[in-house]
């Protein structure tokens, strides 16, 4: 690898504070950079309109679960890149009284799916079949998720919650600069998949207003008829007809059978923190638990934020955790997962016994394989805190950018390509370079393993932080580093979100750094220990949306400037 820089595009873009990997420590004179501070409530998401609609619902007397429905649907309107009706997600909650839980609305494999559906006659993976087109979609879970959560805990009616979203779809949203480039990037593929006349086949420029009338009508029907509309009503029929016409296998029976599932979150302690995160079929909670518990015995504060020593010990924990992730984790309704064992202190201590501060562990020494992986930022996360003190961390996705690229013009939304999150064939990487084992093989009705990591953190028994991020396989490590930034290095929420990040996922055996953020001394130190460095693959790692409850009870938003995230509140 070549030279390293100390000042760079990303640093310039998001401000110079705490942005460069270097051995220097923040000085006492440092003026902390904070995000939006509010007294009562907050929503942080990938789009300003979605955050503001969530807050509007809170101000109308709704709680976090009402705001979840509004924010999620507003993201489906304004952020079709990842916001969705045709995808799925996970939400982790903590009520004001400390009660915790989570809801799994991950997509499921259709009943006609089978283990080898993406393999050719000689047993090789057919490129593109699990990522593009109608066969790539799992049965969507988003509408079930938001309605199930809101029905249990919300206070307003879905019609009242969805009205501002319907208005937004009808009146339109303004295309942002980043959105223009993303839409341009998929224009040809969307035309190829859906035909020239498809809604997102039209070229859009920053500043244009997009009015999605088909989506407004779909949302109106859903507001009137509830989730049954999506799973059993006219919307279900149109979706199935469209998908089957394009060669997909989702049936009316698949939709009618879909249910979101309440799950016990993964809970573990890290020093004085109690971390509450998503259980399988997301790998998020278990893997972030393994990483943080493996580094807990080390004096990270003394090592210094993003010092070579810190990067090394965290990398070795990431390597070992992802090796376990890929082997053991899958849908708990289909496979037995030793969650307790994987988070046991003695087990994790034994995993770190091979850690050598002078030399990189080789991933082949833990397991075999060699893969390539590609950038991904396509999921989206939002964090909500209401005025009663209820907290929600929600991550939702279509998987790839605009999912399978199948756009249902009659309904106004994209379908997911979540089937690629299954292991199509043991040992063959998916679009994130993650290789899977039997635990994550395809089966009818099974949920594919996810990396989404919606997470809540308590400190001293009180809610302290709500966070999560997009980023495919890098989600887990981005969330772990944000928690460590705030806890070990006393960063404000905004600083913790902005600090440069790195990532290792066992295979490929390389540390990924955000473009041009790596100090040359650290680069030399790591390469001298045989670490492979990759700075070129992706300009950013994750795009964290977070909220911190400050010691005075106020809320601080952390809206990641790597993307167009925004905090709103009152
Ligand atoms: N589709 C990305 C994930 O669930 O991890």
Would you give an account of this structure?
This protein is of the alpha+beta class and 570 residues long. It has a domain at 41-105 and 128-172 and 211-266 and 370-569: Gamma-glutamyltranspeptidase, small (S) subunit (Glutamine Phosphoribosylpyrophosphate, subunit 1, domain 1, 4-Layer Sandwich), CATH 3.60.20.40. The chain is built from 19 helices and 21 strands. Helix 19 (520-528) links the parallel strand 17 (511-513) and strand 18. Helix 2 (48-59) runs antiparallel to helix 3 (64-78). The model is unreliable at 1-18 and 368-375 (pLDDT under 50). The chain binds glycine. Glycine binds next to loops.
* Terminal-residue CA separation: 48 Å
Name of the CATH architecture of the domain at 41-105 and 128-172 and 211-266 and 370-569: 4-Layer Sandwich
Task: Supply the helix-strand structural class.
Answer: alpha+beta
Net shape: globular
Bound molecules: glycine
Return the average pLDDT rounded to an integer: 92
| H/I helix tally | 19
Give the CATH class of the domain at 41-105 and 128-172 and 211-266 and 370-569. Alpha Beta
The share of residues in helices is 25-40%
Round the Cα radius of gyration to an integer and report it: 22 Å
Content of β-strand:
5-15%
| Low-pLDDT runs | 1-18, 368-375
Structure summary, number of beta strands: 21
The name CATH uses for the topology of the domain at 41-105 and 128-172 and 211-266 and 370-569 is: Glutamine Phosphoribosylpyrophosphate, subunit 1, domain 1
Main pleated sheet: 7 strands, antiparallel
Question: Quick one: CATH superfamily of the domain at 41-105 and 128-172 and 211-266 and 370-569?
Answer: Gamma-glutamyltranspeptidase, small (S) subunit
Strand order, largest beta sheet: 1-20-19-15-14-9-8
GO molecular function, one term: leukotriene C4 gamma-glutamyl transferase activity
Pfam families: G_glu_transpept (PF01019)
Binding site for L-glutamate: 106, 397-399, 421, 450-451, 472
Keywords: Acyltransferase, Glutathione biosynthesis, Hydrolase, Transferase, Zymogen
């Amino acid at each position: 690898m070549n030279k390293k820089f100390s000042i760079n595009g990303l640093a310039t873009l998001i401000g110079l504070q705490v942005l460069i990997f270097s051995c220097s420590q923040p000085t006492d004179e440092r003026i902390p950079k904070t995000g939006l501070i509010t007294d009562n409530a907050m929503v942080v998401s990938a789009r300003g309109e979605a955050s503001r609609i969530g807050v509007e619902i809170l101000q109308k007397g709704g709680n976090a679960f009402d705001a979840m429905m509004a924010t999620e649907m507003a993201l489906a309107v304004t952020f079709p890149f990842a916001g969705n009706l045709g995808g799925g997600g996970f939400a982790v909650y903590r009520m004001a009284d400390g009660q915790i839980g989570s809801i799994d609305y991950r997509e499921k494999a259709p009943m006609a799916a089978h283990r080898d559906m993406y393999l050719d006659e000689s047993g090789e993976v057919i490129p593109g079949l699990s990522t593009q087109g109608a066969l790539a979609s799992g049965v969507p879970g988003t509408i079930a998720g938001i309605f199930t959560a809101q029905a249990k805990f919300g206070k307003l009616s879905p019609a009242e919650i969805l009205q501002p979203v319907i208005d937004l779809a009808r009146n339109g949203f303004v295309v942002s600069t980043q959105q223009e480039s993303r839409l341009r990037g998929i224009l040809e593929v969307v035309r190829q998949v859906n035909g020239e006349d498809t809604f997102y086949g039209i070229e859009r420029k920053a500043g244009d207003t997009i009015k999605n009338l088909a989506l407004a009508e779909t949302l109106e029907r859903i507001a009137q008829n509830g989730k049954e509309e999506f799973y059993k009503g006219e919307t279900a029929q149109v979706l199935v007809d469209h998908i089957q016409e394009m060669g997909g296998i989702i049936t009316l029976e698949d939709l009618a059978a879909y249910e979101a599932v309440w799950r016990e979150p993964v809970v573990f302690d890290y020093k004085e923190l109690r971390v509450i995160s998503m259980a399988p079929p997301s790998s998020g909670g278990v893997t972030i638990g393994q990483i943080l518990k493996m580094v807990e015995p080390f004096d990270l504060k003394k090592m210094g934020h993003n010092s070579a020593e810190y990067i090394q010990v965290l990398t070795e924990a990431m390597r070992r955790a992802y090796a376990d992730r890929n082997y053991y984790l899958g849908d708990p309704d289909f496979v037995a997962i030793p969650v307790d064992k994987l988070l046991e202190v003695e087990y994790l201590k034994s995993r770190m016994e091979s850690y050598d501060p002078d030399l990189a562990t080789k991933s082949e020494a833990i397991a075999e394989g060699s893969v390539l992986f590609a950038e991904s930022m396509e999921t989206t996360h939002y964090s909500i805190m209401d005025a009663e003190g209820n907290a929600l961390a929600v991550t939702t996705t279509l998987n790839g950018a605009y999912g399978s690229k199948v756009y249902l013009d009659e309904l106004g939304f994209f379908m997911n390509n979540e089937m690629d999150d299954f292991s199509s064939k043991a040992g063959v990487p998916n679009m994130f370079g993650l290789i899977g084992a039997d635990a994550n093989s395809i089966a009818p009705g099974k949920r594919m393993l996810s990396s989404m990591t919606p997470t809540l953190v308590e400190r001293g028994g009180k809610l302290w932080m709500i966070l999560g991020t997009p980023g495919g396989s890098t989600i887990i490590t981005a969330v772990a580093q944000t928690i460590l930034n705030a806890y070990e290095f006393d960063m404000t929420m905004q600083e913790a979100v902005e600090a440069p990040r790195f990532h290792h996922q066992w295979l490929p055996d390389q540390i990924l750094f955000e473009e041009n953020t790596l100090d040359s001394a650290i680069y030399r130190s790591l390469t001298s220990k045989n670490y492979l460095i990759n700075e070129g693959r992706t300009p950013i790692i994750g795009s964290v949306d977070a909220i911190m409850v400050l010691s005075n009870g106020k809320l601080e938003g952390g809206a990641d400037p790597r993307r167009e995230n925004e905090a709103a509140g009152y």
